[in-house]
Amino acid sequence: MDSQRALAGGAVVVVAVALLSAAVVPGAVAPPDDGPLRPGPVHVVDADIATGEITGQTAELELFATLAHRGNPAENVTVRFEATDAESGLLEAAEEVSVGDLTAEGERRVSTTLTVPREGGYELEGVVYRNGTRVDEFTRQVSGVEALTPAYAESNVSFVDDPILEPVTVSIVDAGENRTTLELGSWLTAVGPSEADSLSVTFIVRQAESNVVAARTSVDAGGLQEGRSDTVTAEVSVPSEYNYYVDAVLTRDGVIVDTAGGVVNLDPTETIDRDQTEQEVEFDASDFESDDGPPDRPEGTEATAAQTPGFGPVVAVVALLSAGLLARRRR
Length: 331
What we know:
331 residues, 4-stranded antiparallel beta sheet, Immunoglobulin-like, 19 strands, mainly beta
């Protein structure tokens, strides 16, 4: 009985000391300190592509990425944009954009411009970093970059593209014994105001078998009204009894802006056709694709278990339970 009383008294003393320490000594019984806040997640929700300045050798690709941020602040956010040649796999251009600290929830638009050779296709990638750690990324693809037209080669006038009308017409004006006079014509359409003083069409007549140029002439093509189609004509003289390819070249200030072709058969024993196996290339950009980066941990605080040395409430409870069990055992 004396031992039970002594043990119970000891437990009471432990509880009393713990309560007294909590009241007198600051921090003797303290909850765990809050650790550093986990940064809020940052994700790419959309990515767009636009074209910038186009030259004869290079093309500017403007990349836009929309970042979404929520929760706790995210520090030192950056986005690295890259353009990789789709065929060779070589990195052609790269740019890193600093976004800074994201403190408010919402979306942030980030953009940059990458200059690449005006040819082939590219895989465009954007990688989002938060304090140097990759958290998200996206990819886009573009093809047919060579189809982008430089400003110096743009024109509101072009040869007619029609399944019935031939862009180049040929008629015989005079058929001599040794030479034949041909009237060459081409259909042009103006989709906007034409450059009256700078447009011309050059007709080149090539002998089909030897590819030797038999005749060449140029004619002014300016003055065509917007939204109208018209023909330009010119006469040439070529040796008789041969077949010819006729090339029509539309130029503006000495720069080729469009081409068309036709044939003329003067050989009574053989005819030729124009090769129409040309494949048209168009600029194309793929849809937005996002690859989720490493998953963000749940928001909150990280317990560091840093406490001031001393008796906590858990110690007091354990002491009471131990005393009760021991007393019951000795009965």
